[in-house]
Protein: 3-hydroxy-3-methylglutaryl coenzyme A reductase
Organism: Tropicibacter oceani
Amino acid sequence: MTEYSSRIEGLRAMDPAARRDAIAGAAGLGEDDAKTLAGAALPPDLANGMIENVIGTFELPLGVASNFLINGREYLVPMAVEEPSVVAAASFMAKLAREGGGFTVSSTLPIMRAQVQVIGLSDPHGARARLLAQQGVLIDMANSRDTVLVGLGGGCKGIEVQVFDSSPIGPMVVLHLLVDVRDAMGANTVNSMAEMIAPKVEEITGGTVRLRILSNLADRRVVTASVRIPAAALTTQTLDGAQVAQGIVEACALALIDPYRAATHNKGIMNGIDPVVVATGNDWRAIEAGAHAYAARSGRYCSLTTWEIDGDDALSGVLEMPMALGTVGGATRTHPAAQAALRLMRITSAQELGEVAAAVGLAQNMAALRALSTEGIQRGHMALHARNIAITAGATGADIDRVAKAIVAANDVSVDRAKQVLDGAY
Ligand SMILES: CC(C)(COP(=O)([O-])OP(=O)([O-])OC[C@H]1O[C@@H](n2cnc3c(N)ncnc32)[C@H](O)[C@@H]1OP(=O)([O-])[O-])[C@@H](O)C(=O)NCCC(=O)NCCSC(=O)C[C@@](C)(O)CC(=O)[O-]
Ligand SMILES: NC(=O)C1=CN([C@@H]2O[C@H](COP(=O)(O)OP(=O)(O)OC[C@H]3O[C@@H](n4cnc5c(N)ncnc54)[C@H](OP(=O)(O)O)[C@@H]3O)[C@@H](O)[C@H]2O)C=CC1
């Protein structure tokens, strides 16, 4: 068996079939999985079982980011995304990151929260005390709902109770169930537990339970990714590495103080994370909600990453954010391509998947800041977007690359110019 490698010579120049063969070979992926990743993997009857009123399926390009070395392990990362330059940028930064030993990642236990809202209380603080006194009963009751999870070492591990002295409808108490969901995203799991304990919560508090639902602010399920790259590795044709590193730090500084910039900065991070979330059949709305709520947890929305230059003149970046991803549950086991994507990465736990997604998010942020603080985003991004423009203008087959190259060379990446190239005017 060949050794798994994420470095594949000439990958970008291959056609999709050859690229798929090269990826499958490098990852030791079986023929069936390679075929599944080629597309049309979701038959109508399966799709019809996943959501309602199904009329078909909607496809996205699936790319693979190369060069990722994460905690000393090689990863070829599947990314389902419509935006050009995202996969290239991640691969590029992962290549640079190898100069410093790649990415280092870690994560907390997969603890999700479910909220149980209690209203109609005359003594909210007394109700809180009564709930805390009965926490053993509530935890046992919640765990009786999911013996499979408990058998796997997960389950409800504790409760928290918050009192809101005032709200538009008066005081309320909110009980949080803290549940180790193991390899699941966990929404259905914790929602079932919250609904199960609700009558007992009413009995203990004397109030009325309204909402029983997870919180997407998964602040007890946090992943940290970091990277440290010697400045020399960042050298470009016109700038030395120290200048590039300084530019990245200065670009991040604005996202740390200004929500207008932070929103775009964090969108750039999610450019890396969402495609991995989608490719593995996970709930990207949950990941987006968690990320942005976490970015605003201090009361001021800011960057999810920090970039510094350390004492040895190396550029050092850190991303910290919630990551509620599953390798079981939801659509992760229903969609054949999601399973093949996990096998492509050889991922065996939800925690590992979250850590890989975070490394890709950090790489993506670095790529954007590097481009923005040096030559600007348009050169690299528009050169790759040019193929989309060529298609929009009507190019097909070999004409797509020919027209794209021509409009990039003319520094006029527009549909008009592409049409003129197609019509032979240039
Ligand atoms: C686009 C690049 C990578 C070009 O950068 P470049 O310097 O032209 O790249 P290169 O040709 O020297 O290639 C270097 C490596 O990049 C990868 N690479 C390069 N091209 C390809 C390709 N066609 N297909 C596959 N891989 C590619 C590949 O790994 C390659 O290594 P090699 O294979 O040669 O050993 C660079 O300009 C870049 O990183 N730009 C940033 C792009 C970006 O951030 N895109 C996201 C969309 S913009 C956005 O939505 C977010 C934003 C920007 O608003 C966020 C924010 O504001 O913070
Ligand atoms: N606000 C939000 O984000 C919401 C999201 N959702 C959706 O919920 C879905 C995810 O819910 P989720 O609870 O993950 O899915 P599931 O309920 O489908 O799967 C979780 C269940 O899988 C079983 N299981 C088997 N092996 C494992 C393992 N190794 N680790 C953990 N559990 C295991 C467990 O018990 P058992 O076998 O007994 O089932 C567990 O309860 C997504 O589709 C999401 O879109 C739903 C509501 C709200």
In short: Strands lie at 62-70, 73-80, 103-107, 111-119, 155-164, 172-180, 208-215, 222-230, 305-309, 314-322. The pocket of NDP (ligand 2) is lined by residues 146, 148-149, 152, 154, 181-189, 191, 214, 216, 283, 286, 326, 328-331 (CB under 6 Å). The CA atoms of residues 60 and 80 lie 6 Å apart. The mean pLDDT is 96.
